[in-house]
Amino acid sequence: MSDRARQMSLAGFLIAGPVVHSHALWRNPARPLPFLSADYYLDIARTLEAGCFDLLFFADRLGIGDRFGADKDTGLRHGDQDATRLDPIPVLSMIAAVTRHLGLGATRSTTYDQPYNLAREFRTLDHLSDGRAAWNVVTSMNDGEAANFGVDSHMGHDERYDRADEFLDLAFKLWDSWERDALILDRETGLFADPAKVHYVNHEGRYFKSRGPLNIPASPQGRPVIIQAGSSDRGRSFAGKWAEVIFTLAPDQPSRRRFTDSIRASLVEAGRAPDSCKVLPAIMPFIGETRAAAEAKRDLHNSLVSPVVGLSTLSGHANVDLAGFPIEAPVDELRGSGTQGNLAMVSRIARERQMTLADVGREYGQSVMVPQICGTGAEVAEELAAIFLSGACDGFVVSPAFLPETYREFVAGVIPHLQERSVFRRAYPAGTLRDRLFN
Asked: What Pfam families does this protein's entry cite (predicted)?
């Protein structure tokens, strides 16, 4: 095994808005959150690049939260995860100009987009970033998004993945429609490109029809790195076919191990090598000079979250209205047409801990079930290194509690200890994002 193969991957998680997994993010007592300004995102990107993170990726959704109480009031009043989201592609285009190594990931939906448009967006980003583009593939999850696109009700779970399979198939054809040496640019002879190396795709399927070719030459990576987060059976099957990075929510070590083993099996079933995809569970670190100081930061953070705001976000994720259920009643099982893996996890944890709906809402608002890790920089690094070296994952998605504090403290306090343990790089190697992830 090479030294590079032993080293963990790290991704920063963000939403271009006031909330990430932490619903206390915008209520940071130390400073306001300028989430509508360019400098805010550029500062975060520079911090992550200083820490040699593999990538920063933005989650996204295509509508405000209005499933809870069948109204927009609660989500907007309390600031749930969907209250505001800027489009991540323009944000990443700005970040590309001020960074040189950090991978740049954006969420785009296969349910409410078209392959040709999306293929152009990511090929452009890949060119402008010298090969650092990544696409977080989502199928979208709730009826509020459907309504914004003139659709009466959201497409069923498995059908969304059927459409997504064809979407990626066509997008890959479009990215492959230019051979790498098709662009000639011979100024002396006047030959711009070799027409024989630019191909029509002539795709005609159940959901899409496109002649092609793409109107942008091949980019450094050829296609973006594919990120995916589906954890249902159908989602894992989809990931096994397409994904290169898997983002997952796993609350403990046994669930991390089970999920990673299931992804490895899905990769092999799809005819791929078991190490051809990075599995990155999310963590939310609280770092202090002592463990007690870190726990005090966590407790302050968690105290700022109302159960109602968590239930508003969970209603959107589950695509079900939770407002009609007694808030102090024990939770047995949550059902909905949204994110099935997340729903199953929340239901299991609620049963095991005998949680009420209010308890679920409070914890969901604090972290959307992302495990919170407290300690000094050395202690957090030791815990992450132990999880990584156990083989339960390939690295981590770091989700901030407060910004810019979480990423600054992680880079200053945790990264050096990971480097001392030889589980994380000290400098970026040359190459594209895909090169850094897999070479």
From this structure: Bac_luciferase
